[in-house]
Amino acid sequence: MENQHIEAVIFDLGGVLIDFDHTIAAKKISSFSNKSFLEIFNLFFDSPLTGLFEEGRILPLDFFLEVKKLLNLNLKYEDFLPIWNEIFFLTEKNKQVYHLAKQLKNNYKIGLISNINILHFDYLKKNFSIFDIFDSIITSFEVGVRKPNPLIYQKALRALETKPQRIFYTDDRQELIQEAKKLGFKSFCFKGIDKLKEDFLSVGIKV
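Above: the chain sequence. Below: its structure as tokens.
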């Protein structure tokens, strides 16, 4: 059966292998801006500017200068960096996913696809030991597009050197797995460790 021939398992990063909270940064930034908390949060979490940054289309310093202008920010770049970066934390759920992925590495290629900017990615690499399990890491800032653009999934497909039907993919955002499904990936919305194990078993992955 085809379900027994999964060759690669791809994970999302944020919300799956590590958690984050943009309100942490927004609250800190509010002390240096005359903008409302909601305005700051919306700019940080999901805006055209952060989209450009996640696609690697603007450099970190230029991103900061735009943020400074938009938020009337009274802050230096070197002081902005820790505020921008220190929003990540590991939960028990994240740790369980990591250990599960580490077990799977014995029998499957392990991949990562993440919408992420270079500052966050570099910070995570320096501060969290979660990247050693991956055979392939695909980031939006390196590829130049974000999920759900099909190009980022195709990049992962080429990197893992397998067929889409032989890839298991999990992401915590439903809208981001739909494009992967169209390409043939066996895609599942991440809803916790128990559901993940069920999804693995449904395609013949024994854990």
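Residues 48 and 91 are 29 Å apart (CA to CA).
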